[in-house]
Amino acid sequence: MKDIDKKLIETISRYTASGIEQQVDYEKFYLYSLITHSTAIEGSTVTEVENQLLFDEGIAAKGRSLVEQMMNVDLKNAYLFGFEWAKTSKSYTVNFLCELAAKVMRRTGSEYSTMGGNFDSSNGELRRCNVSAGIGGRSYMAFQKVPQATADFCQWLNDALVSVDRNNMATCYRLSFEAHFRLVTIHPWVDGNGRTTRLLMNIIQRQLGLIPSIVTKDAKGEYIQALIDSREQEDSTIIQDIMLAQHITNLESRILQYQQSINDTVNSESDTVNDTATRLITLIKAHPEYTYDEYAKALNIGRATVARHIKKLNGTIIKRIGSDKDGHWEFIKEQ
């Protein structure tokens, strides 16, 4: 076992023991991180807080393009679909992958008329034209070979999932990274390949009982270069090792952030919080049914500030009862 594989196992053990996953709405906020970073790699500038407001309350972010926001909404729906599918015992097929791509590209896809034929990326249809990796980049597989290559990929993945040792966490992660690399190298679609193949990677991880890995926007350059190096050197362990290292870094960062948020939010001796949070807590006590806008107006602060503080308080000080639109807040312990 490589040293990085051992470090991964140690980091996940600490992550699990930290209590992060026991926070209220942990899975929802983790999902929002997956979505925000995946779209950011493709050029979206929408933040996690903005996505939270968009997804939970239908409030669009000011200064963000409609395409960016549609991209994020589509990817959220694709993730919800994919993670539900992961609970089944169905085999991977070309039709399923195209259905996944259709959900990713639903509102931002286009119709194409090419020498190879007409196709619609919003329907997840396989490309019928050749594409390259940017200006001056290497060309991907000829479009005529894509259908069979994608079918062969599905056969390989189904066989690999049957034979993989599910007790070997590092091996399972490597399988998911390998699947991502193989499919993005085929490049089955004219657009949305990155988002769709990272989603596939996360679906596989869910199937194998793993914490989904996030390719962060800050690691974009290293990630893309590793994909290029793996293709050119015909050595997929390059991208596997990079993605393992990035996953370790992300989990360690989340452990530290979680510990700091507890220390910042609740004083270990007096359970006091900073001034803004204290005022917000007092208001939540008086009006647990208020919306973010009402809290912001009452405290004369920005809505984003309210959302940021509630995100820190949620799961440690307060918890949500009922839906985001019609529910209310309750305190986990007396303040």
Automatic annotation (TrEMBL):
ATP binds at residues 191-198. The record marks 42 as: Important for autoinhibition of adenylyltransferase activity. Pfam families: Fic (PF02661), HTH_24 (PF13412). The active site is at residue 187. One of its GO terms (molecular function) is ATP binding. InterPro entries: Fido, Fido-like_dom_sf, Fido_containing, WH-like_DNA-bd_sf, WH_DNA-bd_sf. The keyword Nucleotide-binding applies. Keywords: ATP-binding, Nucleotide-binding. Residues 92-245 form the Fido domain. The keyword ATP-binding applies. This is Filamentation induced by cAMP protein Fic. It comes from Phocaeicola salanitronis (strain DSM 18170 / JCM 13657 / CCUG 60908 / BL78).
